[in-house]
Design a protein that fits this description.
Layout: E1 3-12, E2 17-26, H1 38-45, H2 55-69, H3 71-85, H4 92-104, E3 111-112, H5 114-130, H6 144-151, E4 157-164, H7 168-177, H8 185-190, E5 197-205, E6 209-217
Parallel strand pairs: 3-5
Antiparallel strand pairs: 1-2, 1-4, 4-6, 5-6
Helix pairs in contact: 2-3, 3-4
Length: 220
C-alpha cells in the first residue's frame, strides 16, 4: 500500500523559529464522525468571508473550531478513531494531547479575520501554484513577519502550514499531535486562548497534494 508524506510547519515569530516534521502514512479511508457539530457550523457561517472560502479552507476552519469548542468530542470522536486507523500515531504525543485537550477545556472558537483570510490564501496560492519551496517565506523570499506587517497585522501573529495528500481532517489531527516535535508548538498555537482570530487558505500543490495555511492573531 502506498505511503504518503505529510509535512507540517509552524512559525513562531517570538523566537524566529520554524519547525518541520514529516509523517508518512499509508493511504486509506479516513474515519470521520457521522454527524457534524451544528454549533460550530452555525458559528462559522456567520463569520465574514466564510462563504467565499474554498471547500478545503472551510473544512480546515471546521475541524479547528470543533477542537476549540468541544475538545472532549474532538478527542473521542475524531482522534481516537484516527489513532485506531493509524496505530503508528498512537505514541507519547497522543497521550499528552488527550491531557492537553482536557486541561484546555472549551475555548472561544476562532473568528474569521478578512485580512488573515487574504494573507493565508495568498500564501497558499503563491506556494501552491508555483510548487515553490515549502515554508513561511513567499516564493520571492518575503518572510512571514513582513507579510503580516504589510497586511496590517501588528501583534501576536502565528502561522501553521501543512502539505497533505489525504483529507483535511487528518491534516488538522497531525497539527494537534505534533509527532516528533517535542515543543508541541502547533498544538500550543491551536489551543492558545489569547489567539482569537484566524484566516485559512488552501491550494493545490502539484497534481494531488494540497497546501494548507492557518494564520492566527490576537484580537486586532
Amino acid at each position: 500500500m502506498p505511503r504518503i508524506p505529510f509535512l507540517l510547519f509552524l512559525f513562531l515569530p517570538l523566537f524566529s523559529l520554524a519547525q518541520l516534521t514529516v509523517v508518512e502514512l499509508e493511504v486509506k479511508k479516513i474515519p470521520e464522525p457521522v454527524s457534524r457539530d451544528s454549533a460550530v457550523d452555525a458559528w462559522n457561517i456567520t463569520q465574514p468571508g466564510y462563504r467565499q472560502l474554498p471547500q478545503r479552507s472551510k473544512e480546515l476552519l471546521y475541524w479547528t473550531n470543533l477542537a476549540r469548542h468541544n475538545p472532549k468530542y474532538f478527542w473521542d470522536s475524531v482522534l481516537v478513531p484516527l489513532l485506531r486507523a493509524f496505530p503508528k500515531l498512537n505514541k507519547t504525543e497522543a497521550k499528552s494531547l488527550e491531557l492537553d485537550l482536557k486541561r484546555a477545556g472549551q475555548l472561544p472558537m476562532f473568528s474569521l479575520n478578512t485580512i488573515l483570510i487574504r494573507t493565508a490564501q495568498a500564501h497558499a496560492t503563491d506556494i501552491g501554484s508555483k510548487k515553490a519551496t515549502l515554508g513561511h517565506n513567499s516564493s520571492t523570499g518575503v518572510d512571514f513577519g513582513t507579510r503580516m506587517r504589510l497586511a496590517g497585522i501588528r501583534r501576536c501573529a502565528n502561522e501553521n502550514i501543512a502539505l497533505s495528500s489525504q483529507n483535511v481532517l487528518l491534516s488538522v489531527a497531525l497539527l494537534y499531535l505534533d509527532i516528533n516535535l517535542p515543543a508541541l508548538s502547533h498544538r500550543k498555537t491551536l489551543l492558545d486562548p489569547n489567539l482569537r482570530e484566524i484566516g485559512v487558505g488552501s491550494a493545490l500543490y502539484g497534481q494531488d497534494q494540497y497546501f494548507l495555511v492557518q494564520d492566527f492573531a490576537c484580537a486586532q
